[in-house]
Amino acid sequence: MTKKSASAKKTGTARKASPAGKTASVRKVTPVKKAVATGASVAVEKAAPAKKVAVEAPAGESRTALVRRARRINRELAEVYPYAHPELDFENPFQLLVATVLSAQTTDLRVNQTTPGLFARYPAPEDLAAADPEQVEEILRPCGFFRAKTRSVIGLSKALVEDFGGEVPGRLEDLVKLPGVGRKTAFVVLGNAFGRPGITVDTHFQRLVRRWKWTAETDPDNIEAAVGALFPKSDWTDLSHHVIWHGRRICHARKPACGACPIAPLCPAYGEGETDPEKAKKLLKYEKGGLPGQRLKPPQAYLDAGGRPAPPLGAA
Fold it and tell me: Domain named HhH-GPD: which ranges (predicted)?
Protein backbone atom coordinates (compact mmCIF):
# COMPACT_ATOMS: atom_id res chain seq x y z
CA MET A 1 0.00 0.00 0.00
CA THR A 2 1.37 3.47 -0.95
CA LYS A 3 1.67 6.30 1.56
CA LYS A 4 -1.04 8.16 -0.31
CA SER A 5 -3.54 5.28 -0.20
CA ALA A 6 -2.69 4.57 3.41
CA SER A 7 -3.36 8.20 4.27
CA ALA A 8 -6.70 8.09 2.44
CA LYS A 9 -7.70 5.00 4.32
CA LYS A 10 -6.75 6.63 7.62
CA THR A 11 -8.86 9.70 7.04
CA GLY A 12 -11.82 7.61 5.90
CA THR A 13 -12.12 9.29 2.49
CA ALA A 14 -10.66 7.89 -0.70
CA ARG A 15 -10.47 9.72 -4.01
CA LYS A 16 -11.33 7.52 -6.96
CA ALA A 17 -11.70 8.23 -10.65
CA SER A 18 -15.16 7.70 -12.09
CA PRO A 19 -15.70 5.99 -15.43
CA ALA A 20 -16.54 9.39 -16.87
CA GLY A 21 -13.07 10.68 -15.99
CA LYS A 22 -14.25 12.65 -12.97
CA THR A 23 -13.29 11.99 -9.41
CA ALA A 24 -15.74 10.74 -6.86
CA SER A 25 -15.29 11.06 -3.13
CA VAL A 26 -16.18 7.84 -1.34
CA ARG A 27 -16.96 8.34 2.31
CA LYS A 28 -16.14 5.38 4.54
CA VAL A 29 -18.90 5.01 7.11
CA THR A 30 -17.80 3.85 10.54
CA PRO A 31 -19.25 0.36 10.96
CA VAL A 32 -21.71 -0.18 13.76
CA LYS A 33 -22.72 -3.47 15.31
CA LYS A 34 -24.46 -5.71 12.79
CA ALA A 35 -28.21 -5.77 13.19
CA VAL A 36 -30.04 -9.03 13.68
CA ALA A 37 -31.08 -9.92 10.15
CA THR A 38 -34.72 -10.31 9.34
CA GLY A 39 -35.94 -10.64 5.70
CA ALA A 40 -36.39 -8.97 2.30
CA SER A 41 -39.00 -8.38 -0.40
CA VAL A 42 -39.44 -11.30 -2.75
CA ALA A 43 -42.17 -12.50 -5.09
CA VAL A 44 -44.28 -15.61 -4.60
CA GLU A 45 -42.73 -18.10 -7.00
CA LYS A 46 -42.62 -21.76 -7.92
CA ALA A 47 -39.81 -23.84 -6.51
CA ALA A 48 -37.11 -24.79 -8.96
CA PRO A 49 -33.75 -26.46 -8.49
CA ALA A 50 -30.68 -24.24 -8.63
CA LYS A 51 -28.94 -24.35 -11.98
CA LYS A 52 -25.22 -24.39 -12.57
CA VAL A 53 -24.38 -21.46 -14.81
CA ALA A 54 -21.05 -20.67 -16.38
CA VAL A 55 -19.90 -17.27 -15.12
CA GLU A 56 -18.48 -15.17 -17.94
CA ALA A 57 -16.80 -11.83 -17.38
CA PRO A 58 -17.85 -8.83 -19.52
CA ALA A 59 -15.90 -8.20 -22.70
CA GLY A 60 -12.45 -6.88 -21.84
CA GLU A 61 -12.61 -8.04 -18.22
CA SER A 62 -11.02 -11.29 -17.11
CA ARG A 63 -12.81 -13.74 -14.86
CA THR A 64 -10.35 -12.89 -12.07
CA ALA A 65 -10.93 -9.16 -12.53
CA LEU A 66 -14.70 -9.68 -12.40
CA VAL A 67 -14.45 -11.57 -9.10
CA ARG A 68 -12.21 -8.88 -7.62
CA ARG A 69 -14.49 -6.05 -8.75
CA ALA A 70 -17.62 -7.80 -7.48
CA ARG A 71 -16.10 -8.46 -4.07
CA ARG A 72 -14.78 -4.93 -3.84
CA ILE A 73 -18.26 -3.56 -4.54
CA ASN A 74 -19.63 -5.71 -1.75
CA ARG A 75 -16.93 -4.48 0.65
CA GLU A 76 -17.67 -0.86 -0.24
CA LEU A 77 -21.40 -1.37 0.28
CA ALA A 78 -20.74 -3.07 3.62
CA GLU A 79 -19.05 0.15 4.77
CA VAL A 80 -21.85 2.34 3.41
CA TYR A 81 -24.58 0.16 4.95
CA PRO A 82 -22.96 -1.44 8.03
CA TYR A 83 -26.40 -1.68 9.64
CA ALA A 84 -28.09 -3.30 6.60
CA HIS A 85 -30.80 -5.76 7.52
CA PRO A 86 -33.85 -7.23 5.83
CA GLU A 87 -36.67 -4.75 6.13
CA LEU A 88 -39.52 -6.96 7.29
CA ASP A 89 -40.57 -6.86 10.95
CA PHE A 90 -40.66 -10.28 12.61
CA GLU A 91 -40.14 -11.93 15.98
CA ASN A 92 -39.87 -15.59 14.98
CA PRO A 93 -39.40 -17.76 11.86
CA PHE A 94 -43.16 -18.14 11.34
CA GLN A 95 -43.70 -14.39 11.21
CA LEU A 96 -40.79 -13.94 8.82
CA LEU A 97 -42.10 -16.68 6.53
CA VAL A 98 -45.60 -15.19 6.39
CA ALA A 99 -44.33 -11.62 5.97
CA THR A 100 -42.04 -12.64 3.12
CA VAL A 101 -44.86 -14.35 1.25
CA LEU A 102 -47.01 -11.24 1.76
CA SER A 103 -44.28 -8.96 0.38
CA ALA A 104 -44.86 -10.14 -3.20
CA GLN A 105 -45.93 -7.25 -5.45
CA THR A 106 -45.93 -4.70 -2.63
CA THR A 107 -43.48 -2.90 -0.36
CA ASP A 108 -41.99 -4.17 2.87
CA LEU A 109 -43.41 -1.02 4.48
CA ARG A 110 -46.96 -1.98 3.54
CA VAL A 111 -46.39 -5.50 4.88
CA ASN A 112 -44.95 -4.14 8.13
CA GLN A 113 -47.98 -1.89 8.54
CA THR A 114 -50.33 -4.85 8.00
CA THR A 115 -48.77 -7.79 9.86
CA PRO A 116 -49.16 -6.42 13.43
CA GLY A 117 -52.92 -6.87 13.12
CA LEU A 118 -52.53 -10.28 11.48
CA PHE A 119 -50.15 -11.68 14.10
CA ALA A 120 -52.10 -10.18 16.99
CA ARG A 121 -55.12 -12.21 15.89
CA TYR A 122 -53.28 -15.28 14.56
CA PRO A 123 -49.96 -15.57 16.47
CA ALA A 124 -49.15 -19.20 15.59
CA PRO A 125 -49.51 -21.56 12.60
CA GLU A 126 -52.33 -23.39 14.39
CA ASP A 127 -54.31 -20.14 14.65
CA LEU A 128 -53.86 -19.11 11.03
CA ALA A 129 -54.51 -22.65 9.76
CA ALA A 130 -57.96 -22.57 11.37
CA ALA A 131 -58.78 -18.98 10.38
CA ASP A 132 -61.83 -17.86 8.43
CA PRO A 133 -60.43 -16.88 4.98
CA GLU A 134 -62.78 -13.89 4.66
CA GLN A 135 -61.52 -12.42 7.93
CA VAL A 136 -57.90 -12.92 6.86
CA GLU A 137 -58.65 -11.31 3.49
CA GLU A 138 -59.92 -8.17 5.21
CA ILE A 139 -56.69 -7.87 7.21
CA LEU A 140 -54.50 -8.48 4.15
CA ARG A 141 -56.43 -6.25 1.76
CA PRO A 142 -53.86 -3.38 1.99
CA CYS A 143 -51.12 -5.74 0.73
CA GLY A 144 -52.77 -6.30 -2.65
CA PHE A 145 -53.57 -9.69 -4.22
CA PHE A 146 -55.11 -10.39 -0.83
CA ARG A 147 -57.18 -13.40 -1.92
CA ALA A 148 -54.19 -15.28 -3.35
CA LYS A 149 -52.05 -14.29 -0.38
CA THR A 150 -54.75 -15.44 2.03
CA ARG A 151 -54.78 -18.85 0.35
CA SER A 152 -50.99 -19.02 0.58
CA VAL A 153 -50.59 -18.07 4.25
CA ILE A 154 -53.48 -20.28 5.39
CA GLY A 155 -52.19 -23.11 3.20
CA LEU A 156 -48.61 -22.89 4.44
CA SER A 157 -49.89 -22.70 8.03
CA LYS A 158 -51.88 -25.90 7.54
CA ALA A 159 -48.82 -27.58 6.03
CA LEU A 160 -46.67 -26.50 8.97
CA VAL A 161 -49.19 -27.95 11.42
CA GLU A 162 -49.79 -31.18 9.52
CA ASP A 163 -46.26 -31.92 8.27
CA PHE A 164 -43.87 -30.16 10.64
CA GLY A 165 -45.55 -30.09 14.04
CA GLY A 166 -46.29 -26.36 13.79
CA GLU A 167 -42.62 -25.45 13.37
CA VAL A 168 -40.97 -23.74 10.41
CA PRO A 169 -38.45 -26.20 8.94
CA GLY A 170 -34.84 -25.14 8.59
CA ARG A 171 -34.13 -26.96 5.32
CA LEU A 172 -34.51 -25.61 1.79
CA GLU A 173 -36.06 -28.82 0.47
CA ASP A 174 -38.78 -28.63 3.13
CA LEU A 175 -39.52 -24.92 2.83
CA VAL A 176 -40.08 -24.98 -0.93
CA LYS A 177 -42.83 -27.57 -0.47
CA LEU A 178 -44.98 -25.04 1.39
CA PRO A 179 -47.71 -23.15 -0.55
CA GLY A 180 -46.44 -19.84 -1.93
CA VAL A 181 -42.82 -20.54 -0.98
CA GLY A 182 -40.03 -20.81 -3.54
CA ARG A 183 -36.26 -20.51 -3.44
CA LYS A 184 -36.15 -16.75 -2.83
CA THR A 185 -38.60 -16.86 0.05
CA ALA A 186 -36.85 -19.92 1.48
CA PHE A 187 -33.45 -18.22 1.41
CA VAL A 188 -34.83 -15.18 3.21
CA VAL A 189 -36.03 -17.45 6.01
CA LEU A 190 -32.94 -19.65 6.07
CA GLY A 191 -30.50 -16.73 6.05
CA ASN A 192 -32.29 -14.50 8.53
CA ALA A 193 -34.10 -16.85 10.89
CA PHE A 194 -31.70 -19.79 10.86
CA GLY A 195 -28.35 -18.21 9.93
CA ARG A 196 -27.91 -20.40 6.84
CA PRO A 197 -26.45 -18.54 3.82
CA GLY A 198 -28.55 -17.84 0.77
CA ILE A 199 -28.93 -15.28 -2.02
CA THR A 200 -32.22 -13.38 -2.26
CA VAL A 201 -32.80 -12.56 -5.92
CA ASP A 202 -35.53 -9.93 -5.76
CA THR A 203 -36.18 -7.25 -8.38
CA HIS A 204 -33.56 -4.89 -6.93
CA PHE A 205 -30.93 -7.62 -6.84
CA GLN A 206 -31.66 -8.65 -10.43
CA ARG A 207 -31.44 -5.08 -11.69
CA LEU A 208 -28.19 -4.18 -9.95
CA VAL A 209 -26.15 -7.29 -10.69
CA ARG A 210 -26.95 -6.87 -14.38
CA ARG A 211 -26.07 -3.16 -14.26
CA TRP A 212 -22.77 -4.08 -12.67
CA LYS A 213 -22.27 -6.80 -15.31
CA TRP A 214 -21.80 -9.52 -12.72
CA THR A 215 -24.02 -11.62 -14.98
CA ALA A 216 -26.14 -11.27 -18.11
CA GLU A 217 -28.62 -13.90 -16.91
CA THR A 218 -32.28 -12.94 -16.58
CA ASP A 219 -33.72 -16.07 -14.96
CA PRO A 220 -33.65 -15.68 -11.14
CA ASP A 221 -32.29 -19.18 -10.55
CA ASN A 222 -29.51 -18.60 -13.06
CA ILE A 223 -28.72 -15.23 -11.48
CA GLU A 224 -28.52 -16.90 -8.07
CA ALA A 225 -26.06 -19.47 -9.40
CA ALA A 226 -23.93 -16.99 -11.36
CA VAL A 227 -23.59 -14.44 -8.56
CA GLY A 228 -23.09 -17.15 -5.94
CA ALA A 229 -20.06 -18.35 -7.88
CA LEU A 230 -18.39 -14.95 -7.42
CA PHE A 231 -18.51 -14.97 -3.60
CA PRO A 232 -17.80 -17.28 -0.68
CA LYS A 233 -20.99 -18.90 0.56
CA SER A 234 -20.56 -17.21 3.94
CA ASP A 235 -21.06 -13.82 2.23
CA TRP A 236 -24.34 -14.62 0.49
CA THR A 237 -26.88 -13.38 3.04
CA ASP A 238 -25.15 -10.07 3.81
CA LEU A 239 -24.42 -9.59 0.11
CA SER A 240 -28.15 -9.79 -0.56
CA HIS A 241 -28.84 -7.12 2.07
CA HIS A 242 -26.15 -4.79 0.72
CA VAL A 243 -27.34 -5.03 -2.90
CA ILE A 244 -31.04 -4.69 -2.05
CA TRP A 245 -30.43 -1.70 0.23
CA HIS A 246 -28.38 0.03 -2.44
CA GLY A 247 -31.10 -0.60 -5.02
CA ARG A 248 -33.76 0.89 -2.77
CA ARG A 249 -31.78 3.91 -1.66
CA ILE A 250 -29.49 5.00 -4.49
CA CYS A 251 -29.43 2.78 -7.60
CA HIS A 252 -33.07 3.18 -8.54
CA ALA A 253 -34.71 1.52 -11.52
CA ARG A 254 -35.75 4.59 -13.52
CA LYS A 255 -33.25 7.22 -12.41
CA PRO A 256 -30.26 6.02 -10.41
CA ALA A 257 -28.48 8.67 -8.35
CA CYS A 258 -25.09 8.14 -10.01
CA GLY A 259 -23.69 11.42 -8.71
CA ALA A 260 -24.26 10.32 -5.11
CA CYS A 261 -23.19 6.70 -5.57
CA PRO A 262 -20.27 5.48 -3.42
CA ILE A 263 -19.33 2.77 -5.91
CA ALA A 264 -19.49 4.92 -9.06
CA PRO A 265 -15.81 4.23 -9.93
CA LEU A 266 -16.56 0.50 -10.01
CA CYS A 267 -19.83 0.67 -11.94
CA PRO A 268 -19.83 0.04 -15.72
CA ALA A 269 -23.30 1.63 -15.91
CA TYR A 270 -22.19 4.95 -14.40
CA GLY A 271 -23.94 7.79 -16.23
CA GLU A 272 -27.25 6.03 -16.83
CA GLY A 273 -28.72 8.20 -14.09
CA GLU A 274 -28.22 11.71 -12.67
CA THR A 275 -24.48 12.46 -12.40
CA ASP A 276 -24.71 15.95 -10.93
CA PRO A 277 -23.96 15.50 -7.19
CA GLU A 278 -26.49 18.04 -5.94
CA LYS A 279 -29.29 16.81 -8.19
CA ALA A 280 -28.43 13.21 -7.33
CA LYS A 281 -28.74 13.89 -3.61
CA LYS A 282 -32.37 14.87 -4.13
CA LEU A 283 -33.06 11.38 -5.50
CA LEU A 284 -31.87 9.53 -2.39
CA LYS A 285 -34.43 7.57 -0.41
CA TYR A 286 -34.86 6.33 3.16
CA GLU A 287 -32.20 7.30 5.67
CA LYS A 288 -29.80 8.44 2.91
CA GLY A 289 -32.37 11.04 1.93
CA GLY A 290 -33.56 11.80 5.46
CA LEU A 291 -36.71 9.71 5.06
CA PRO A 292 -38.00 6.92 7.33
CA GLY A 293 -37.14 3.33 6.50
CA GLN A 294 -39.59 0.50 5.95
CA ARG A 295 -39.65 -1.09 9.41
CA LEU A 296 -41.85 -0.06 12.30
CA LYS A 297 -39.46 -1.78 14.71
CA PRO A 298 -35.98 -1.59 13.17
CA PRO A 299 -32.83 -2.95 14.86
CA GLN A 300 -31.14 -0.66 17.36
CA ALA A 301 -28.02 -0.44 15.18
CA TYR A 302 -30.10 1.12 12.43
CA LEU A 303 -31.56 3.69 14.83
CA ASP A 304 -28.12 4.43 16.27
CA ALA A 305 -26.89 5.17 12.75
CA GLY A 306 -29.61 7.76 12.21
CA GLY A 307 -32.31 5.58 10.68
CA ARG A 308 -35.95 6.42 11.32
CA PRO A 309 -38.75 3.89 11.81
CA ALA A 310 -41.74 3.90 9.48
CA PRO A 311 -45.18 5.11 10.62
CA PRO A 312 -47.90 2.55 11.51
CA LEU A 313 -50.78 1.88 9.15
CA GLY A 314 -53.15 4.84 8.95
CA ALA A 315 -50.67 7.34 10.45
CA ALA A 316 -50.44 10.74 8.83
Answer: 102-249
In the set 108, 149, 184, 235, the catalytic residue is 184
3-state secondary structure of 64: helix
CATH of the domain at 259: 1.10.1670.10
Active site residue 238: no
Residue 31 lies in a domain: yes
Check if the beta carbon of residue 313 is closer than 8 Å to that of residue 47.
no
Task: Mark the binding-site residues for [4Fe-4S] cluster, compressed into ranges.
Answer: 251, 258, 261, 267
Q: What integer pLDDT is reported at residue 315 of this predicted model?
A: 67
Contact 298, 307 (CB under 8 A): yes
Known catalytic membership, residue 184? yes
- Split into its structural domains, the chain has a count of 2
Burial class (CB in 10 A: 0-12, 13-18, 19+), 173: exposed
pTM (2 d.p.): 0.80
Q: How many CB atoms lie under 10 A from the CB of residue 94? A: 23
Integer Cα distance of 264 and 258 in angstroms: 7
Task: Give dist(CA 243, CA 309) in Å, integer.
Answer: 21
Among the listed residues 89, 108, 149, 202, the single catalytic one is 202
Q: Write down which residue in 193, 212, 233 finishes a domain.
A: 193
Using 50, 70 and 90 to split pLDDT, how confident is the model at 51? low
